[in-house]
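Re-running the complex after MR caught last week's input typo. The corrected sequence lines follow. Everything else is unchanged.
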Amino acid sequence: MSAAPSVPLKRRPPARASETHPNSAFLTGLARAFGGAILFSLPLLMTMEMWWLGFLIPPGRLAVFLVVALPFLVGLSYLAGFEDTFDRREDVVDAFVALGVGFVASATVLLLLSVLEPDAMPLDELVGKIAVQAVPGAIGALLAQSQFGNSGAERPGERAVGYWWELHLMLVGAFFLALNIAPTEEIVLLAYRIGTPHLLTLVLVSLGAMHAFVYAVEFRGQHRLPEGAPWWLPWLRYTIPGYALALLASAGVLWVFGRMDDTSAVEMLRTTVILAFPAAIGAAAARLVL
Amino acid sequence: MGARDEQIPPAEWAAAAAGCAVLLGTIAFLVHGALAGPPTPPDLLVAADSVTHVSSGWLVHFRAENRGESAAAAVEVEGEAVRPAGAETSRAVLDYVPGGSTRRGGLFFTSDPRPLGDLRLRAVGYQAP
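Corrected-run output:
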C-alpha cells in the first residue's frame, strides 16, 4: 500500500530558467507529474487483481468510472495547485493533462512489466488494463504538484479553503486509499471473517482516528479548533461528514471493482465498513498533508 | 503545471488536448463495447501444440483459446490418450482464460500420447469469475 509522503518540500529553490519560460516550466511540471503518477500508482500497477479487472470489468462500468472521475480530478487540481483563485479553465486543463499522464504512465509501466502483451491480447483487454489504472495515475500526477512542487509560495496545510473544499480534500484521501486496497482478495476475506462486535468497534475507531489525526495529535499542518467553539462542532462539521464520505468512496470503489455484484446487502455493508477504515484514515491524512 | 502567471503555455494546451483525446477515445471505445450487448459465453477450444519427453514421462504442450467474449476462471482442461492398452487421462487447471485470448499449459502422461491426432483435449468446466 502507498502512503502520502509526510514532509512536504517547503524551501524555495534558486531561480531557474523554468521560472521565466512558461513552456519549459510546464514541461518540468509534466516530468514531475509523471514521477508522481508512477510513484502513487505503482502499488496498483503491480497488483494482479487490477490486471484481471482489465478483462473482467464491464466496459460500461469502466466508462462510468472515468466520467465520474473527471470532476473529482478538476477539484483535486484546484486543491493541489498553488493559486488562490479557482480558475475553472486552468484546473480543467490540468485535470486533462493529469489524465493523459495517468494513461501514458500506466501503459508504459504495464508494457515494461509484460502485463500488456499487444501481440497476444485483444484490444478490449489492453484498453481495460490501462484505463482502470489511469485514474490512480492521474491522482498521483496531481498530488505531485502539492508534494513536490517547486513553487514555495504557500506552505501546504496552511491554505485557507472553504468548507466544501475541505470535504473534497477528505474525499480525495478516502478515495485514494480505497482504490489501493479494494481490488485485492483480502478485503472480502476480512468481511467474511469479521464478527459484528469487531465491526462496530471498527466504526468507532475509524471516527476516533479521523478526529485524532486532525485535531489532537499535533501534526504539522494540524488544524486549530476555533476559539470558544463547542467541543462537538468539529465532530459535526468535519469528522462525521468525513466518515460518511469515506463510506461513500468505499462503496463506490467496491462497486467499480465488482465486489458488490450478486452480493447480499449485509455483505456489501460489511465490506464497505472495513474498507472505510483505511479510507477514513486517508481522508484525515489528506487534510493534514494537502 | 507549475508556476505560471496568467497565460497557459502552449505545451500545456497540447498536453491537455492529448489527455482529452485519450480520455474521450477510451470512453467511446468502452461505451461501444457496452452497447454491443451482453458478452457471449466462454467458448473454449483446446489444441495440442507439441510433445516433449520429460523425466516423468511425456509432456503435451497445449493451448486453450477462448472464442467467446466472457472470461472463464478455473478452467479444467482434460486430455485423453486413447490406446489399445487403455485410455490415460490427465487434467490441468488454468486460472483465467479471458475472452478472445489464449492461455497455455501442459499435461503429463506416463505413456507416449502420440500421435497427437488421437489425443482428445477439451475444457471440462469453468467458474464464472
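None of the earlier attempt is carried over here. Helices of chain B lie at 10-35. Residues 1-37 of chain B form one domain.
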